[in-house]
Amino acid sequence: MLTTRRRVMISERLARDGQIVAKALADELGLSEDTIRRDLREMATEGLLKRVHGGALPLTPPLPDFAARQAIASGVKRMLGRRAAGLVQSGQTIFLDGGTTNAEIARALPRDLRATIVTHSPTIAAELEQHNAEVILIGGRLYKHSMVAVGAAAVAAIEQIRVDVFFLGVTAIHPAYGLSTGDYEEATIKRAIARQSAETYVLATAEKFGAASPHRIMSVNDLAALVVPADIENEVLSPCRDATTLFFA
């Protein structure tokens, strides 16, 4: 089989199945596993897919900047934010990750809520100006793409806090690769927060499912729940149904 034909087949299989297992594809095509792995390496170098142990996953497209993302699916994000805010209980310590969807959680929280809200996002903290909740802002180097603090100082501060619920922001969700994001330092911060949290929730719109960003955060199985739109298609969710609880907005 010509290299061009193999690459077309790999791309089609990624679009259909959301992953490539090198050995299984090699056996199916009657080729050596080394041949498939070489194709995957070359396609990854060209930015066509993401190589992982044993195969490959699709890439997520580059995200627009923070200001532009605020206008994307804003109505759906508001619904997700309201559903997530309803999960917060008085007296809890909550960590809100950065991002436009989590900003909707902050906006939906009752202003008289007695709770402690921790965040490393100055934009999230600003949303809570008129709330009774105590707000703790984690500092560090500002990663402007997501408007969150990253770096050693942020990690050190996070390690001194225990939280009840972490609302984690991600750019991609894949049943095999897990939850991922586009920046190495941001992924490190997210893992640090998750380690300090009793429960971790993710709010996710449909386009985040079945894809993988470069930097893995954690497994879907490690989540307490996914908060998703009520009208999301069943085939989008089916790979994650056995991995975690689903809340619909």
From TrEMBL:
Residues 3-58 form the HTH deoR-type domain. GO terms for molecular function: DNA binding; DNA-binding transcription factor activity. The keyword Membrane does not apply. Keywords: DNA-binding, Repressor, Transcription, Transcription regulation. InterPro entries: Carb_Metab_HTH_regulators, DeoR-like_C, DeoR_HTH, NagB/RpiA_transferase-like, Tscrpt_reg_HTH_DeoR_CS, WH-like_DNA-bd_sf, WH_DNA-bd_sf. This is Transcriptional repressor of the fructose operon, DeoR family. It comes from Sinorhizobium sojae CCBAU 05684.
